[in-house]
What we know:
The complex is a heterodimer of chains A (249) and B (309).
Chain A: E1 2-6, E2 9-11, E3 33-35, H1 37-51, E4 57-64, H2 68-78, E5 82-87, H3 94-108, E6 112-116, H4 127-135, E7 139-149, E8 152-159, E9 162-169, E10 172-176, H5 188-195, E11 199-202, H6 204-207, E12 215-221, E13 230-231, H7 235-245
Parallel strand pairs in A: 1-4, 1-6, 4-5, 5-11, 6-10, 7-10
Antiparallel strand pairs in A: 2-3, 7-8, 8-9
Helix pairs in contact in A: 2-5, 3-4
Chain B: E1 2-6, H1 16-27, E2 31-38, H2 42-49, E3 54-61, H3 70-81, E4 86-90, H4 93-106, E5 110-114, E6 116-119, E7 122-127, E8 132-138, E9 143-147, E10 162-165, E11 175-182, E12 195-199, H5 206-209, H6 213-219, E13 222-225, H7 227-231, E14 252-256, H8 262-268, E15 273-278, E16 291-294, H9 297-307
Parallel strand pairs in B: 1-2, 1-4, 2-3, 3-10, 4-9, 5-9, 12-13, 12-14, 14-15, 15-16
Antiparallel strand pairs in B: 6-7, 7-8
Amino acid sequence: MKILVPVKRVADYNVKVRVKSDGSGIELNNVKMSMNPFDEIAIEEAMRLKEAGHASEVIALSCGPSQCQETLRTAMAIGADRSILVESDVELQPLAIAKLIQAIAIKEQPQLIILGKQAIDGDCNQTGQMLAALLGWPQATFASKVIVEAGKAIVTREVDGGLETLALTLPAIITTDLRLNEPRYVTLPNIMKAKKKPLETFNPDGLGIDVSPRLKTLKVSEPAKRSAGIKVPDVATLIAKLRDEAKVI
Amino acid sequence: MTALVIAEHDNTTLKGSTLNTISAALQCGGEVHVLVAGSNCDEVVQATAKIAGVTRVLLADAPHFADGLAENIAEQVVALATSYSHVLAPATSYGKNSLPRVAARLDVGQISEITKVISPDTFDRPIYAGNAIATVQSIDPIKVITVRTTGFEAATNGGNAVIDRITAVADSGKTTFISREVAKLDRPELTAAKIIVSGGRGMGSADNFKILEPLADKLGAAMGASRAAVDAGFVPNDWQVGQTGKIVAPQLYIAIGISGAIQHLAGMKDSKIIVAINKDEEAPIFSVADYGLVGDLFEVVPQLIAALG
């Protein structure tokens, strides 16, 4: 079976982002961009399933500007066999991305689509679930363990207060949580190999998908700053402050 | 204009997250109805009908709603949604799982994790791990929203809603529930606790984490941890406070041996009072703490326990 893994290019998780002074968005000029960490986990999981003999091919997919090619090369350096870029310079929101992935899924007929549970820029946590609904497929979000057997995916999910295990009839959607796996390091030979792997490009119009945004961002602002309080010299002072000043114990 | 809230529950108890979501729904300006989709969940329905501001409780009772499977819950919501201006669910693992399915089936965008209702179509939501707040306006006819529970007060009792039993949608049949492992807690739940005692990498080991237990017991506190402590295997993942874990806002948050990475601060900076105990006086956690104590946690924690009597 084929596994399709959508990946997103986002500001690197180590970057401390700044709000633009005119409040129109986040300053992304000269900011290091990387693959969304949850998507890296998704690619790694797809590779492990392939290496275990459950998949014949892993296809990476990205939707966004032409620079997403770099992200796709990273996915292929981790091990994806080939890539697809749906190129668009307009802001793509989760519903639009889900529709683009759906269009590619109809062409490619994967049995499994593995996505990150959320992207660390918009923090929406929507695309996987929306895609599952559009395709009419079952879903398991926030996966911490995946087993594929006999036409089913048995997925353990991280839910509030514990874990939950579901059996999904394939084809299905899985979204990854942090503890699913630890992605491998990309080696130089694999980076070189990735440069030669096929990368196909589409655009939303060609796929017949309307990607107009449904949410208008009116402004982006800094969160309310919390100012530093005081240092207390010892435990007795701390307890006194908590009792008498803050009145929280 | 009427809002539909999706109740989170376990067929016996209505989860507190629903109460915060109802408050957000009331701020959207119209009537508030609540959908309880479950199996043998009469107690939940009775509790929901008593919440102030709720005028109607819709009960969809069927065995295939027992485990909250997203495929089934979402279809039930879709069957009702076109009569509503807003559909809201808590931004917990329950709500996050099913609501985007609803939005996609209705062909509308979703507004995730709102922290403020500015007007019936405009909301604030944190982006980039809480490092920025976006004010967004939805142009869709139905606003599908998940609610960050710490952004809204819990709705209180005092209502007397009509209870309507509605026809349940069919089982999707594509997902089977196998099992659930609920971590047994003899302490308050992290997201509902008034006081949280949280440990970080500075705790050093899983065994050392145990020194926080008597402190949590004395304070009636929940226990939490930073991602560093979870990644190091000191404590289970569901203890994690931060952007990739739980978002909390207790009355008192005591951070012990936690340096204060951005991703941790994003999960706890709305706490009323923050106490930091760390031996590194340069630790970023001190920049958000109301009271900081520079010292070795292995000396300070026992002193704290003793002083609390």
